Structures are given as structure tokens and as C-alpha cells.
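User: I'm putting together notes for a lab meeting next week and I want to include a structural view of one of the chains we've been expressing. I don't have a solved structure, so I'd like a prediction I can at least talk through. The sequence is below, exactly as it appears in our construct file.
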Amino acid sequence: MSLKAFHVVFLISAIALCLGFGAWQVRVFLEDRGWLDLVLAAASLLGGVALIVYFRAMLRKLRDFSYL
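Assistant: Thanks for the context. Below is the predicted structure for the 68-residue chain, given as C-alpha cells.
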């Protein structure tokens, strides 16, 4: 597995984990109304969006390299 392929797999899993954790924290916030849950949800969702932006930039930059 090339470094580019590993990077793609790693970023997709990191995005899924960030967005999943953010959604979970939103659900917890709606049940308990804890301010820390809202902060964690916002930070995680913003981190997921930042990873998506980085992922798109990385794919554009490395489009000439193969996945093998």
C-alpha cells in the first residue's frame, strides 16, 4: 500500500470518527443540556469539516501520483 493510499484511508476514517463523535455529542447535549457536550460537539464537527477541506486539497495536490 502506497503512502497516498494509506493517507486516503486514514483521512476517511478520521473524518468519519470526527463527524460521528460530533453527532453523538449533539445527541447527548440535547438530552442533558451540558455545556461541555456542546463544546465537544462543535469542536468535533469543525474538526471534521477541516479534515474534509484538507482531504480535498491533498487529493488535488497528489492527483498525479498513483495509488500503488
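A couple of points you could mention at the meeting. The two ends are 6 Å apart (CA to CA). The mean pLDDT is 96.

User: Perfect, that's what I needed.
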